[in-house]
Amino acid sequence: MAQRGWWVRGIVLGSAVLLAPVGAWADKLTELEQTFDTQQKSLQQLQQEMRRLRQERTVQQAETDRRVMEVEKKAAEAAASSPLTGYEPGKGFFLKSADGQFNLSLRGYIQTWFITEGARKEEDFSAADRAAGIARHSPSTFRQRRTRVIFSGQIFNDFSFYIEPELSFGGVPDSTGKSTGAARLEAGYVSYTYAPWAKATLGQYKARFGLEMLTPSSDLDFAERSVISRTLSPDWQLGATVEGNLKLLSMPLYYGVGIYNGCGRVDQCAGGIDNDGDKEFTGRFTFSPPVPFGNLTIGLNADHRTFRIVNGKGATDANSTTTPVSGTSFHRFNPAQATGWKLAGDGGGTSQNGFLINGNRVAGGGDIVFDFYPFMIKGEYAYASQERDALGAGGSNLDNLIMQGGYGSIGYWIFGNKRNGLLANGRYEHLRVDDRHGEFNAPASAAKERPMEMRAGTLGLNWYVNPSVRLRANYLLTDVRPGRNTIGVSNSTHGELVHEGIAEVQIQF
């Protein structure tokens, strides 16, 4: 019995020993499971919090993007409604919309001359020449050659306008050489551009004829245009033009055709309307063929106009080279030299006083520009045939008056360019007025008319201080036949050469 009890106690005791760790492990496992559950719940809470934060961030980002887009839109709208302003040296002030469809520019320039003349030498005049010599002489003087303010602009891209008045009071000579003493409209027109090859212009502007006449006065190579340009190239006219630029086999081409009143500026036409009913027609064509170096442009010109008195009125031109003669039935043609004195007399009674004309004038010619820095070559030739109807004995027609001539010039840039540079240049001119048969027939009422020939040379120096300021000096040498037409002009007492000088200051803004 005793041995059996010992085994029972041993088994209980062993069981106790074996079962004791299992209970501890169970408690530990339970504790771990509880900890895992707690952490799992915490992780789920963190994941939920992260999802919530992501959603809030997405909403905030969308709101931020929306606000940024609103700000950018408002800024764009403000920019679109705010005009751009500025100034470009030599080109003036501008005001334009941000979309580029509208713009307004204000610019202008002033040209002041000092003309130097030789002494009149009145003591050397013959009795017959005294009156004409005194009347013809112009002393050395300052002269306000041009004072222009230019307004131009663009409307809806396709439409544009241009207004250019002349404000030189007392500085603009009329057909007698005297100043008009009043401002006038030089140019005022509107344009519509359908395409680069089709542009229509209506108003007062330069008729499309001639290289030098179409060059802006502020951009001339010399102080004044050549005599042939001012003689035969129509100047300011009121009318309509169709023109455009295109290309043929990559060669740039330009064409321009126009119809005009033919009576000059609006202030030269009685009542501002066509005073004789006859229209003027012009055409110009230029092309720029490829050359091995430099740039070459060739131009061709044509013009048809009428100088005939209708109802006591007739056409004139902006340069007053051709004007109706009051109280008669004809016009007078009398070209003028750069400083204004008439090449065919001044009405003093001792020499010819221009050429009587009556009828149609047909003119044509060509011009060339070859620019290969530092050299620049330009030339122009014009020919015109002018009718002289009913001016002969018994109302017969005289031979047509033939007017022809041209100029050639060469320039050399000593340094720089038109923004800052020094240009030396020279020009030779020639003009002849006679008839087509060589033996000149003058009207019975103008027995002193004789063929006229002019040769002239100009030497110049242009200093472009900056894009807005230019200083210029020109020396002019003129030879006129018959020589009596120059008596009294700058030391010319017996038909000798005429020497003159022009100094100019030009300011652009």
- At CATH level 3, the topology is Porin
Order of helices and strands: HEEEHEEEEHHEEEEEEEEEEEEEE
Briefly note the structural class of the backbone. Answer: alpha+beta
Continuous helix count: 4
What percent of the residues sit in helical stretches (DSSP H or I)? 10-25%
CATH architecture assignment name: Beta Barrel
- The low-confidence runs, each spanning 5 or more residues with pLDDT under 50, are 174-178
Q: Determine and state the CATH class.
A: Mainly Beta
- Give me the side-by-side strand order of the main sheet: 3-4-5-6-7-8-9-10-11-15-16-17-18-19-20-21
Please indicate the count of domains.
1
Q: How does the major sheet shape up? A: 16 strands, antiparallel, barrel
The beta-strand count equals 21
Average pLDDT, to the nearest integer?
A: 87
CATH H level: which superfamily? Porin
The radius of gyration over CA amounts to: 44 Å
Cα separation of the termini: 139 Å
Shape: elongated
Which band does the percent of strand residues land in? 35-45%
What does this structure look like?
The chain has 509 residues and is of the alpha+beta class. Helix content is 19%, strand content 44%. It is built from 4 helices and 21 strands. The chain has a 16-stranded antiparallel beta barrel. A 3-stranded antiparallel β-sheet has the order 12-13-14, with no helix packed on it. The radius of gyration is 44 Å and the shape is elongated.
List the helices and strands and how they pair.
Elements: H1 2-81, E1 84-88, E2 92-96, E3 103-117, H2 130-136, E4 141-155, E5 159-166, E6 184-195, E7 198-206, H3 211-214, H4 227-232, E8 236-248, E9 251-260, E10 280-287, E11 295-307, E12 322-324, E13 331-333, E14 355-357, E15 359-372, E16 375-388, E17 398-417, E18 420-435, E19 452-466, E20 469-481, E21 498-508
Antiparallel strand pairs: 1-2, 2-3, 3-4, 3-21, 4-5, 5-6, 6-7, 7-8, 8-9, 9-10, 10-11, 11-15, 12-13, 13-14, 15-16, 16-17, 17-18, 18-19, 19-20, 20-21
